[in-house]
Specification:
Structural class: mainly alpha
Shape: elongated
Number of strands: 3
Helix content: 55-70%
Radius of gyration: 24 Å
Strand order of the largest sheet: 1-2-3
Length: 253
């Protein structure tokens, strides 16, 4: 679909922009371009330029992607935008793959993909990618931390701030298990050794058991047995405070 706002009053092109956004988001109509015949810019030779305003729509797509990321942490939304902005599609697809692995609680695979695509994100000089690239790079830089438990704890903090409490609890839980593996000098990526470290940590650390109970209650949608934990899950501010307190207890410097 193409929209021509020539001869519109000064505010009408802006209304057309909003209408185009509405059509795209609510009706599912793809607006390819906005045109405006700028009569006041007619040259002495009688040529009137026609301005293409579709770049504004593309910019709004990037703004939407940033808003979406701030809400749920899914940076995969930037993958098609980077490809449309000139990045080689195979490279841009790595970002979507990284987001997929992160959101299925696999930070090792997510980091592997981010490590591959991050130089391309930093170096990208597309018209809009250059405008938003620095912001995007900062938001996916968690993978640069040196240890797996550092990645997991950084992700736990980020998801807690977004209000995604199940992912926050899950990543915090895994960060503590990874740390326990490091203390025992075993491979945190090997299931048996990781499970043994988890069992040992569960016996030794009451706060870890509390975190496990909260995580399980949120994951399975069941009310925990302990009254205090049940009250915590009944109130968002209490849950947020509990997760912050557990982080402090479990990850003292």
């Amino acid at each position: 679909m193409y929209i021509d706002v020539t001869h519109g009053f000064r505010h009408l092109p802006m209304l057309a922009l909003v209408a185009a956004r509405y059509l795209a988001r609510v009706v599912g109509v793809k607006v390819q371009e906005l045109y405006y015949g700028a009569f006041e810019m007619t040259t002495p030779e009688g040529e009137t330029p026609v301005l293409r305003l579709g770049g504004l729509l593309a910019m709004l797509d990037w703004v939407d992607a940033l808003a979406s990321y701030d809400k749920d942490g899914d940076y995969g939304a930037f993958s098609p935008l980077l490809a449309a902005d000139g990045m080689e599609k195979g490279r841009a697809d790595l970002l979507a793959r990284a987001a997929y692995f992160e959101r299925t609680n696999n930070p090792v695979k997510a980091r592997e993909k981010l490590n591959s695509v991050f130089p391309s994100v930093e170096a990208h000089r597309g018209p809009l990618g250059e405008l938003f690239g620095e912001t995007l790079a900062k938001r996916i830089s968690w993978f640069r931390a040196p240890m797996r438990n550092d990645w997991e704890l950084t992700l736990a903090d980020a998801y807690r701030e977004r209000g995604d409490y199940l992912r926050a609890a899950t990543f915090m839980y895994e960060a503590f298990v990874t740390g326990a593996c490091n203390v025992r000098r075993v491979n945190p990526n090997e299931f048996r050794e990781r499970d043994e470290a988890r069992s040992s940590a569960r016996e030794a650390q009451p706060a870890f058991r509390e975190l496990e109970n909260l995580r399980n209650a949120m994951a399975h949608g069941v009310r925990p047995r302990a009254g205090q934990e049940a009250r915590t899950l009944d109130d968002e501010s209490a849950l947020r405070a509990a997760l912050k307190s557990l982080r402090k207890d479990l990850f003292q410097p």
